[in-house]
């Protein structure tokens, strides 16, 4: 179980906030996520454990309704949405929620990459043959804008570790590199919302 960050806020002025919330779900485990291999555009299945993680999300989401579910087109995300009970009429495939395109580093671990690029992180680059962090941030910004068009409702986002960390950073108005501080494990539930007029993290990596 991941560490939980709770930044819960009570609206003391009694005013009902009609702005949307975003419930963020990272897909269940895959063989590559279990081994720390960067999995961008390689379309692999969930492991047995990953399917169990996805089924557990159904229980954790019980009683919640979603005006819209935006899901990455990758199989591991779509299967997670299905097992979590989110594959109903509100499900929309959103290409902007695809994982970071790691280019030449696809399928490699950070330790392996650092033999070639000492001190490398996905947040600092380089990204030969793949997406820059600014390109990923542009996709995240479009996702955030789409969520914020939904009035007085909750939107589910089913996707991948790095893109969701960038989405959270951009939700807060922070630079995309701030995602480095938002570790996100497989099969977890997080929530992005508001304190008065300020975008906040209500829960992370739960």
Give a concise summary.
This protein has 6 helices and 7 strands. The protein has helices at residues 31-34, 48-60, 75-83, 110-116, 133-148, 161-171; strands at 5-6, 21-26, 68-71, 91-93, 154-159, 189-195, 198-204.
By CATH, the architecture is named: 3-Layer(aba) Sandwich
Number of distinct helices: 6
Instruction: Trace the largest sheet across and list its strands.
Output: 1-7-6-2-5-3-4
Cα end-to-end separation: 7 Å
CATH topology annotation: Rossmann fold
Q: How many domains make up the coordinates?
A: 1
Average per-residue pLDDT, rounded, comes to: 92
Which structural class do you get from the secondary structure elements?
Answer: alpha/beta
The CATH class is identified as Alpha Beta
Report the principal-axis shape: globular
Unreliable stretches: 1-15
Query: CATH H level: which superfamily?
Result: Phosphoglycerate mutase-like
Strand content: 15-25%
- Total DSSP E strands: 7
**Helix content bin:** 25-40%
* Largest sheet: number of strands, sense, barrel closure: 7 strands, mixed
Cα radius of gyration in angstroms = 17 Å
N-to-C SSE series? Answer: EEHHEHEHHEHEE
